[in-house]
Design a protein that fits this description.
Number of domains: 3
Oligomer: single chain
Helix content: 10-25%
CATH topology of the largest domain: Pectate Lyase C-like
Protein name: Transmembrane protein
Keywords: Membrane, Signal, Transmembrane, Transmembrane helix
Distance between the termini: 176 Å
InterPro entries: Pectin_lyase_fold/virulence (IPR011050)
Length: about 450
Amino acid sequence: MKGFSLLFLLFLIEIFNSCINCQCIIYIRVDSVNSNITCGSSIEDPCPNVSTAFKACDYVNSKNPQNNTSMTFYFGSGVFVIPNDISFIPLILYSNQSISLNGVYGDTVFQFTDPTKHILTIMDSVDALPSDQSYFTMSNITIENQSISSTFIQVDTQITKSNIQLISCNFNNQSLTNSLFIFNSIRSPSEFQLSNCQFQNITIPSDTPIFSMNNIQFQFENSQFIHNQGSDKNQSSFIEVSKSQGIFEQCNFGYNLNYSTLVNVDVSSTITFSNTNFQWNYLSVGLLVSNSSTLNISNSEYQNNLGDFIQLQSTSTLQVNNLTIQDNIEFRLFTCNQSEIQVQGTNSIQLNSEGTLNDCINLCTIKTLNQLTDDFECPQKPIQQQETSNSESVDTSKSTSKDKKIIIITTTITLSIFLIIFVIGSYIYRKYHHDPIKDEYIEIN
């Protein structure tokens, strides 16, 4: 019995050592000269570039193929150029696999030389189960100064779930031809987290959002979206959300130019904005558009923007608490169609902007608004009644026109009578009153 226990213990130790040896952890520094396939196993012996690092990781995993589920890379300071023809692109992450890319905050830069394929694609493995998950983490890395014609991350899962985290990452000076992020989960909603990230000076083409998210649970916190620009043709929102649940916490949207909206929320989504500011944005359509979804906005500010605040369509719901709106131009607070607005708390909306307050098209209600003005009231009549009202206004205009004609005719008749009386009176006066000069002339003769 003791011999069996000893053998079993040795077996467990062997498995443990095997897992340690197969764990792919690779270090990379731009000043390294070691290009061997065994490079990167320690910080003292790093690989020189991304391509060599992935080859080294493949070598580690090849020794233990049953455990090649995890890849972790640590990058030092410097600019890492990633050519288009590098062998590992597109990088495919399957179910129950994980990839972690870690840099030095502000000092680790990736430059892609115009890739034409997706950088990272996450998909189901052949034998995937609904309980399987894949993981991708990127921290302290800047992607900049490249014209990217491919998608940076694309999630295309049918039954599995993916978990993506971007922590302290920057995407700067990008001229895109495709979306940076495309998330499409069919069965299980994937998870996406942005924390302390920045998206700056990104230009998007027509019909191409920066983020396209379907069936996603996401959280954006402490992140900046500034100086981004959309196309003036076939406009698209910067962020498009469908069938998703998400929150923007302590984010800032500033100095963005778009001929559409910043955020478009569609089809049974619930999105929350908390402690989030929108300042100095130029938006032709407006900040937010919601279609058959729910928006929650609290403790946030909308200042010095050009464009509407929110458009609600097709049974959307908006809940507002402690919102400051000031110094906006060409502005409407709510454009509402078949939707409901709920305003909570005292002084929930502090408003000081030019423009109309609301444009309520049909079947809209505003509930529990605590304001000293009735400008926020929305009509609750259906279109048919509005059309009736319009016909009544037409009848009223017709009657007004008739009244004007009667007044003109009456005035004309009165003036005519007065003129006749004046002529007759003048004739009578000349007939019965003599001219004194003429009488004197008769007497002398």
